Amino acid sequence: MPASDVAEQPEQPWSRRRLRSTNERLLLDRLRALGAASRAQLARETGLSKPTVSSALASLAAAGLVHEVGTQAPERGRTAVLYAPDPAAGYALGVDIGRGWLRVAVVDLDGTVVARADMRNRARASAALTDLVVSTARQVIANSGVDPAEVVHGVVGTPGVYDERQRRVRYAMHLPGWGRAGLVDGIRTELGVPLEVHNDANLAALGEYTYGVGAGSRLFAYILIGTGLGMGVVSEGRLFTGARGLAGEIGFLPWHGRQKPERLEDAVSGVAVVESARRFGMHGQLTAKAVFDAARQGHPGAVRAVELEGERIAHTVAAAAAVLDPDLVVLGGGVGHSVDLLLRPVRERLRALTPLRPRIAPSRLGEDAVLLGAVATALDTARDLVFERRTAGT
Amino acid sequence: MPASDVAEQPEQPWSRRRLRSTNERLLLDRLRALGAASRAQLARETGLSKPTVSSALASLAAAGLVHEVGTQAPERGRTAVLYAPDPAAGYALGVDIGRGWLRVAVVDLDGTVVARADMRNRARASAALTDLVVSTARQVIANSGVDPAEVVHGVVGTPGVYDERQRRVRYAMHLPGWGRAGLVDGIRTELGVPLEVHNDANLAALGEYTYGVGAGSRLFAYILIGTGLGMGVVSEGRLFTGARGLAGEIGFLPWHGRQKPERLEDAVSGVAVVESARRFGMHGQLTAKAVFDAARQGHPGAVRAVELEGERIAHTVAAAAAVLDPDLVVLGGGVGHSVDLLLRPVRERLRALTPLRPRIAPSRLGEDAVLLGAVATALDTARDLVFERRTAGT
DNA sequence: CGGATAAAGTTAAGGAGCCTTACTAGAGGC
DNA sequence: GCCTCTAGTAAGGCTCCTTAACTTTATCCG
């Protein structure tokens, strides 16, 4: 649910101005994909003529979006002048508001992190949380040395779903006070940066798709298992959000517990691991991590608890597989650290449950998935914005 | 899985020729949406100038894609000449291969059915089935009075999934012999019409989206319950197929039956209704329809069987809702006739299962959903093809 | 070392397609 | 009959792309 929705206008007339703009965009995208290229090379790759490439590139350079970055001698012939996108033409902000940690990063248009901070989130009220977010973000921007006005877009990841009309985050059970209306608007005005808010699992999926193990997947599901249970789906490179942004809320999948129907979230999340470990005879102050560690040592109760967790995850994967047909399912979140233990039971159980067995892999980005997803999303919009203002600015 | 995949080339240079083509396309699409319009009106709506509209429309008319259809006098001022797309510029073929029925229709570019046939499918072998399809399709084309060469595209709906590489339909358990390789190729060459093959539930979803109750939905799921169990998903107007075309194969959803884990398909489809009716005390030669009829008469065993079926459908809907977040779920297929009985138990059960409760509605198209979906899909491609060959033809 | 070759990039000419402006055509109101 | 208003056409100009020829600069090779 983007807070600043870019209205899609699918049917616009193609006047000459639009044509030029489209070709400049084509060249810029190509340059980003290649890193750096000469004008002759761009002409070959895009199918545009050499004069057109020269002139379009000149106007991109005048707008500050590209610049010369050196030369390259071909096998023989005149040395080529290489052009590359200017990473400093704009910056993007990524924020991950998690239950335990707040993470903020500023990236340039190349996607390179120029500043970052990870803070413990001890806020127990909405005011404290927004203050923490605003001050941390300001700090990070200051540390980056970037003019705040050059931070053209930001994306915030959080549990729950941002409701555009009510201007508040819904279903964010694990963040006290975070459901109040107007909080995001407050942060936005305090920072002076356009902000979107997205679900954390969705962003983690995008992060893992862009920078991690999901690259190139046609349909990719990221299952986030931690304090809660969520799933993000990336279809053909784009986030799949459903009708109201609630797609992937697999915590609500039907699940028949021991006594009564309950929510799958309560059966799969970290607490459930601890609970079943207790049931299998473990004692003391337990955390999910402790149970997994004990299982690694061979503690029989812990091993059984992990086994059970694996079966339940398999159930989750099977449901997602039957509905979505992903070619890759990535397990991340708190259990991400323990995927080595879970992979075998998950796969075994899956074999019994369904003939649809997508590839299953552990997260590569771990704790950074949400932040990197936020950054990737913000970057996308930031690139658009910087390109759009190109004409206005000159 | 389209058999003739239109390769997407997202990054093409926008030369002037492409620009003209895009504007002609824009005008044609607008005309289809409006039905008929004058050049001045088109200029106002598209933002193109009047001379441009005149010239583009003239070249569309020369290609036979549009023609004058009359005049309309405005409040005051000169009478306007109205243009409209020529429906006879091409035709599309839709085929629904079902277990009990084979349905074939030919439509013009307006989407009007110009000929149709519904035949009992008694084929028990692949040769008989392909023969039936080919002869029926030929017959329908002949009846339509259309030159077979003008049937530019066709879409076939069938249970299962067409595997492009193996050139055969997979997972089509209920059609004997239909899984053999090369059958579709045979039909294609016999008919001389380019054919795509799609899953029947997917097409039914598209049909219901295009002509039925799903119109305008952002994310729409069609659940087909009959001999088998399937689901089609339409997201933002486009079919959601998953990585390998298996999205919506909810027959494979995990389900814990009375003794052992089984496939949800066996618990929800028509046979399951009969089976539970038997368990609740009904006797004799039963069909799903008979059970529903008995329930309408108040037969207690039948009522309980229907109740149970409703609960299982609710389970299915809940799973789809948690993963996809649809704003509308349509129930169709064999049980479509009996949705009146099922809607209440489904909704009640759903309330207990999950807070995500999409709107649930019965199919409006009934038995025609698959055929109309095939027709709609074929029409889409046919319009593209006719537009593309516009230049080549002249 | 000088010419052949090859690639990068520029210049010049030409053309396609759109827009603006100015016009004609036709229909009603006063 | 004249004014006004809308539909549509004609002419000219502008933008931007392409082709083709040319310049520049590098390597290769005798």
Describe this structure in words.
Two copies of one chain form a homodimer. With 394 residues, the first copy, chain A, is an alpha/beta fold. Chain A is built from twelve helices and 17 strands. In chain A, strands 6-5-4-7-10 form a five-stranded mixed β-sheet, with helices on both faces. Chain A has a five-stranded mixed β-sheet with strand order 13-12-11-16-17, sandwiched between helices. Chain A has a three-stranded antiparallel β-sheet with strand order 1-3-2. In chain A, helix 8 crosses helix 10. The longest helix of chain A has 25 residues. The structure holds a DNA duplex (30 and 30 nucleotides).
Would you spell out the secondary-structure blueprint of this structure?
The structure is a homodimer of 394-residue chains.
Chain A: H1 16-34, E1 37-38, H2 39-46, H3 50-62, E2 66-72, E3 80-85, E4 91-97, E5 101-108, E6 113-120, H4 126-144, E7 151-158, E8 161-163, E9 168-170, H5 183-191, E10 195-199, H6 200-211, E11 219-225, E12 229-235, E13 238-239, E14 254-256, E15 261-263, H7 264-268, H8 270-279, H9 288-297, H10 300-324, E16 328-332, H11 339-353, E17 359-362, H12 369-393
Parallel strand pairs in A: 4-7, 7-10, 11-16, 16-17
Antiparallel strand pairs in A: 1-3, 2-3, 4-5, 5-6, 8-9, 11-12, 12-13, 14-15
Helix pairs in contact in A: 1-3, 2-3, 4-5, 6-12, 8-10, 9-10, 10-11
The structure holds a DNA duplex (30 and 30 nucleotides).
